[in-house]
Amino acid sequence: MRSLISSLDLSKGDVQGILKIAKEIKEGKVPKLEGNVVLLFLEPSTRTRLSFERACRELGLEASVVTGSESSLVKGESFFDTLKTFEALGFRCVVFRVPFVFFPYEDAVRSLKISLINAGDGTHQHPTQGLVDLFTLVEKLGDLSGVRVLYVGDITHSRVFRSGAPLLRMFGAEVSVSGPKNLIPRDVKVFGIEKVFDSVDEGIEWADVVIWLRIQKERQREKLIPSEEGYFKNFGLTKERYSKIKKFFMHPGPVNRQVDMEGELVYSEKSLIYEQVKNGVFVRMAVLRWCLEDG
Ligand code: CP
Q1: pTM score, two decimals?
Q2: Which residues' Cβ are closer than 6 Å to ligand 1?
């Protein structure tokens, strides 16, 4: 039994194993697992929650969904006590999405006899999204050595960036960022990124693949972009910028049309947005199997 809280805990061998299982599943070799899983979603989600629900169903796992307003967390029970309760109820695994950062987590993981899968915790990590993005790019491009990937937008609040960038770098990609200065963390270089582009247009010129991120208004303590129109003009995906993208662009979703990108580009030829959504089911099935299957 394993847990997946942060993509930083994964070795290259772990990631290669998960990608191999996801590929086999996508090709029709679906393993069967037994047991019960809790999907604890304290924040809104369409893609992650439904792909975990589908993943459980396809694998033969029984999934119980608990949302914020339905759990006893609203009555003051702690997160750890909630996890202990799931363990005592006989569940094998908890997939959780929470608005707070689950860190440090090592002691909690060690003391629980239940597998934990992070489906997004505050601004910290969203490792299955990082794996989905890696899987999608490997599927499209094969070897990622030297492939240049640019993340654009609200880097500071992005758990998608924090999860995805280390995985892409692990497989040889070069990663850079672009966004408003106040949405780029001061210590962004600790993520091993190549460049910080003040101009998204220069970033697009540098990149092979561009990953646009959503402005995380719900996580900003103050209004950090003066206007959505101004943000779109300076950093959004316009038709002109689209014409300069060398290979593909991605977005973890949900997309804010006319803020992150021009609406009609969501379905364009260079968009991998719905490939990411489809691969979400296969990759989450692979993560469940990697966490739950002995050996
Ligand atoms: N990418 C992502 O986590 O989407 P949801 O919030 O819809 O799950």
Answers
A1: 0.96
A2: 45-48, 120, 129, 252-254
